[in-house]
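Hi support team,

I've been running sequence recovery on a batch of backbones for a student project. Most finish fine, but this one hangs at about 90% for roughly twenty minutes before it completes. I'm not sure whether the input is malformed or the queue is just slow. I've pasted the structure tokens below so you can try to reproduce it. Let me know if you need the job ID as well.

Thanks,
M.K.
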């Protein structure tokens, strides 16, 4: 593959198209970049929503396992009091996308 993105056409309402065009004009970016960012934001939102739902389900359906998890987490929370602030964390260890590992590999793979 040559690394070039393929493009396609999708149908949206005129209102949606106009909203995208307005945002793109305000930000001085292509409409496709606005759409790409909106989809990425939506994926992030859905990831965290699913995680919250899974946590709530575990709390409701398996309170014993949840209690074990909380107890184990408290042990590790005490270990995290190492005196380092967020500014001390190397930037290369922080993934920009919550679906990626720090090395940039998609965690869904």
């Amino acid at each position: 593959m040559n690394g070039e993105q393929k493009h396609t056409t999708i149908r949206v309402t005129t209102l949606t198209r106009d909203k995208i065009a307005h945002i793109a004009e305000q930000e001085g970016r292509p409409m496709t970049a606005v759409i790409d960012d909106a989809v990425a934001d939506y994926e992030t939102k859905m990831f965290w929503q699913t995680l919250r739902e899974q946590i709530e389900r575990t709390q409701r359906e398996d309170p014993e396992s949840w209690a074990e998890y909380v107890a184990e987490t408290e042990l590790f929370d005490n270990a995290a009091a190492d005196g380092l602030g967020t500014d001390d964390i190397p930037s290369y260890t922080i993934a920009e996308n919550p679906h990626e590992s720090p090395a940039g590999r998609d965690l869904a793979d």
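--
Follow-up from support: It reproduced on our side and the slowdown came from queue contention, not your input. The chain is about 55% helix and 0% strand. No action needed from you.
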